[in-house]
Structure formats: C-alpha cells, structure tokens
Amino acid sequence: MMHRRFSQQVIAWHKQSGRKNLPWQTNVTPYRVWVSEIMLQQTQVATVIPYYQRFISRFQDVKALAEASLDSVLQLWAGLGFYARAKNMHKCAQILVTEHDTKFPKDLTTLQKLPGIGISTAGAILSFAFKQRGLILDGNIKRVLSRYLMIEGNLNASKSQSELWKLVEKLTPTQDCAAFNQAMMDIGALICTPNTPQCANCPLQADCKAHKVGQETDFPQKQVAKTIPTKKIFMLILENDEKQILLDQRPPTGIWNNLWCFPICEKEQEITTICKEKYGYTLTEISRQKPFVHRLSHVHLLITPIYAKAHASTVMEATSKWHDVAYAFTCAIPKPVKMILENALSKTSIKK
Known about the structure:
Structural class: alpha+beta
Radius of gyration: 24 Å
Shape: elongated
Number of helices: 15
C-alpha cells in the first residue's frame, strides 16, 4: 500500500506541477529522448538545453548523427565535458544504422547492449519514448529516496545501489510510468534540492522520515570528499607569419581525447626543445601569461599559457594543423582552449 500511495502522490503532483515543456518533451522520439538523457548525465538541465538545441538542429536523427564525422560531433559537444558520452553516442548511432535499421530497440536487454546506454538511460527511452515501464535511478531520485526513508551510508556503494534499485522496482508503476519517472526527477531537481529543500511544496512531505525529524539536509549522508590532485601544464599558443595558430589533435584516450588543443607540456623549460624536435620550429617572442585553474572531475589543471611565434607554416606531425583563429573556434576544442583563444585576440597580434 505504501508503494501505491507513493506513486499516486508523485503522479498527481506531476499533473499539476511537473515540467512538461522542456525541449526534449515536445515532438518526442526515441532519438530525442536518448540525446537528452545522455547529455543530462552529470549535467544540469539549464546547461544542457542550449547544447541539446544546437545538437538536434545539426543532427536531426540517428542517420544524420551516424554519417557525421566524430570531429563535428565533438565540436558541438565542446564545453559540455565528459566527452566519452559524445563518442559513445556517435558509435551507438552507427550501430543503430547498420544493425537496427536506424530504430531503437524496444526491450531493455537489447538497449543496454548499445554503447553508453545503461539501465537508467534505457529506462528513460522505454518510458518516455515507447510508453513502456522503465526504471530510472539518477542522482535526484537517489536524494529523494534517501530522505524519504532516511537511507544511511554511501548511496553510490554497490550494496546501496542494489537496494535502491530494488526500491525503485517496487515504487515504479506500470501505468503512468513516464509521468512517475519525470516527476521523481523533477521533485529532486526543483523541490528536494541538495541544500535548501522546499519541503512545503513536496507531495511526499507527510510520509518523509527525514522531514518528520527535521533532518532533510543530513541526507544523503555526506561522504569524505576525495582529495583531487592539481596538475601543472603549459599550453603553447604558437603563431606563424600568417597569423595562424597551431592545434594538435589529442590522442583517443586521456584528457580531451580526440579534441583539438594547443601543444601541451608539463615543464616550462621543455617547451622550446619539444617544439624544435616535434615541429621543427625555433620560437621567438616568447611570453608567459598568468596561470588559471580548470577543474575536471578527477584533476584540477593549473594551466599556464605561453605565447610565442614561429616563422614557419609547415607541420611535421599528421595530427597538427595551422588554423586561422576564426576557423579554430569552429573546431572541437575544450573550454580552456576557447578561453585562451578569446584572450589571445586581445593580447597578441593574432587576428580573427
């Protein structure tokens, strides 16, 4: 009875207050649902919306995405982070074209075999696109459930994950599954927020254990934060006589994989040597700029831009290219590279 009451309260709230006009909630297709769900992984709705709109405008369906180059996909993804998501989407689209006639499978097992699609993403596709019963357990839902039942411990631990999935299985209804799933995510995002939950507006407050004892913000229980290391790197902004800048395509693994980036080294004194050995250039007019921090999920990068000139326009590396700055902005470049390029326009003779 508790499970039925829970789902009824959630669905009733959705009818009155749930979000129904997000870009991916109009003209619903499996493709549009899939793109939004991948983008929303570890990323807030407000951040995703402009990326989603640009992406859908450029790649309107599975076939268009499959036929696109990876570089063009990464270019639209640049700045959104977690680039493996984009690479998996591109690979997934190609598999859908070659093995599924561009159609998304309608069963959980087959969906989960596709690159980048886990049980939650599959559950979203099933419930939102195919109106089937599908289970979703994202960070917002975990927070709602942890407060509602005062679930202790690390919610990301394997034991807790298993218990949460069992709970979601019991709570998720067969009828109105899409409304239930959307409402659970909305309640977590809009009401049961991390620091200032709006309990007065919550449809679950009467039975919420944490609310009853005034301990809403004590759940989920905070874990000891891991120390994130800081790594120093130097980025070389190299300009030739044609006022072009040099970009390297990063390897397929590691930070910013497959994106276009300035040449990087970890020791400032190595810049001139590496540049001479790798590219065959002798640097002049070298200028060191103020370092800045770029935070990634696993490391904080302390980036020092080094501006220099090279009186040459040939390249020795196949993965290196000279670009006009205007064109460089259209490449798949990570956020700090874009920031440095914008700064370079005002601090050097480089012209856009």
